[in-house]
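ok, trying the design again with the full structure, not the truncated one.
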């Protein structure tokens, strides 16, 4: 059994876990965590789960003092004959304590172990829980002598003690986001983690690598340039040509993003082992996606299938196969302050029209059962209430069935930062 620590918007992580591991195996444990009936979770492929750990002990209602005693007792005995140096981080979630109290537990353990001749390096706690960057940078959870304890208190006061199996690689996310050559603040900046969540919401349950540790992207240690894999950036005609590496894509699901923009979803899908197909109204965006995918292939030394084409998603004809559709669609204009009622109505009507036409056009082109995950706009007013796209309540008429989650509702599937007017609402659908 695993405990998953959830990200900034916990409902998105819960939804993602339900899709990847099945609703029956996911149980909300606290506001920040869920337990999952599985042996292993690869957090690098789950955008909504910054850390996960194997549960080693469950305690009835306990305060930090009791938990601390248990931890010291258990690990001073377990490590009393440990050979070599131990690095330890302790992260406490859901306790009403400050960082110093967490640190104190580590110091007591360190002193006890010292008496047994065992050396322990304690990672300082700037907060009760170490953030993912600290955990990742210290490589805790990744080997027997580098341990992070995840100590989580449920809403009812029960406690889980788990040993982390690693934290999301925050540096890699930042570099994928910031180092890619083409970015466009106007088109938007879909965070790579949200792209991963969307991909999992569509095809998580179909992806074989979630229960294994290895992704099926082909790693090419010697790879510099694959003939035919990379298009000439100066020749715009290449943009409209496939640059498939014919023998590499067999058996991989192909994900279509019909509003691909700069290609964040395509990029993350590739790293998760899918082959990708992007289309966009804008020729410039197709070039941007192409340059970013070329960068990904070179910087990560991987080869993969991709296909990019300029096209209006309200009337495009897509090439088969399409195994899943994952897209951050047209979101309308950005707002820095809530728009007037009149302006809001105009934008809602415009977005609703484009997205409805797109869904109508897509429907006959995909097989029944094809998963679709879309980020669509929802507008937040000054009271924090949302204006939703009208098409959502009548989506069945367009030929799509909304996925029913067990632990969360559709209203929880909103991604936004505090100061944002235009939120992204995630629609998780299946073609009827
Ligand atoms: C919110 S952005 C998507 C950004 C993208 N997720 C990324 O990684 O950069 C929406 C995209 O939809 C494109 N677009 C707008 N209307 C379109 C249409 N009718 N058909 C296809 N693409 C369209 C825009 O050019 C823009 O690139």
């Amino acid at each position: 059994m695993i405990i998953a620590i959830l990200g900034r918007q916990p409902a998105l992580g819960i939804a993602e876990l339900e899709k990847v591991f099945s609703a029956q195996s996911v149980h909300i444990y606290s506001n920040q965590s869920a337990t999952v009936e599985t042996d292993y979770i690869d957090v690098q492929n789950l955008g909504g789960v910054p850390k996960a750990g194997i549960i080693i002990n469950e305690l009835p209602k306990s305060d930090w003092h009791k938990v601390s005693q248990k931890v010291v007792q258990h690990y001073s005995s377990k490590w009393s004959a440990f050979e070599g140096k131990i690095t330890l981080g302790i992260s406490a979630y859901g306790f009403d304590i400050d960082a110093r109290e967490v640190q104190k537990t580590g110091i007591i353990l360190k002193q006890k172990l010292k008496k047994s001749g065992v050396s322990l390096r304690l990672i300082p706690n700037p907060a009760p829980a170490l953030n993912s960057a600290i955990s990742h940078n210290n490589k805790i959870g990744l080997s027997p002598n580098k341990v992070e304890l995840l100590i989580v208190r449920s809403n009812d006061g029960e406690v889980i003690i788990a040993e982390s199996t690693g934290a999301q690689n925050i540096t890699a996310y930042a570099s994928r986001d910031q180092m890619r050559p083409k970015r466009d603040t106007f088109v938007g900046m879909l965070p790579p983690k949200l792209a991963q969540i969307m991909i999992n919401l569509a095809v998580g349950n179909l992806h074989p690598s979630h229960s294994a540790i290895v992704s099926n992207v082909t790693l090419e240690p010697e790879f510099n340039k694959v003939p035919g894999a990379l298009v000439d950036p100066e020749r715009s005609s290449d943009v409209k040509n496939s640059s498939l590496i014919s023998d590499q894509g067999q058996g991989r699901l192909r994900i279509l993003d019909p509003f691909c923009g700069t290609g964040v979803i395509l990029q993350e899908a590739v790293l998760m082992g899918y082959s990708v197909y992007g289309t966009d109204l804008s020729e410039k965006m197709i070039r941007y996606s192409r340059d970013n995918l070329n960068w990904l292939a070179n910087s990560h030394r991987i080869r993969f299938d991709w296909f990019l084409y300029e096209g209006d998603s309200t009337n495009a004809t897509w090439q088969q196969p399409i195994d899943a559709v994952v897209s951050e669609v047209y979101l309308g204009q950005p707002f820095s302050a809530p728009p007037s009622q009149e302006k809001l109505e105009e934008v809602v009507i415009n977005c609703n029209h484009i997205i409805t036409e797109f869904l109508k056009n897509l429907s006959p082109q995909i097989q029944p059962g094809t998963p679709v995950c879309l980020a669509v706009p929802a507008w937040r007013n000054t009271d924090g209430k949302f204006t939703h796209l009208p098409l959502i309540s009548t989506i069945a008429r367009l030929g799509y069935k909304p996925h029913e989650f067990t632990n969360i509702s559709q209203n929880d599937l909103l991604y936004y930062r505090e100061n944002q007017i235009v939120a992204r609402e995630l629609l998780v659908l299946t073609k009827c």
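Keeping the full-length input from now on. The domain at 2-168 is CATH 3.30.2130.30 (VC0802-like).
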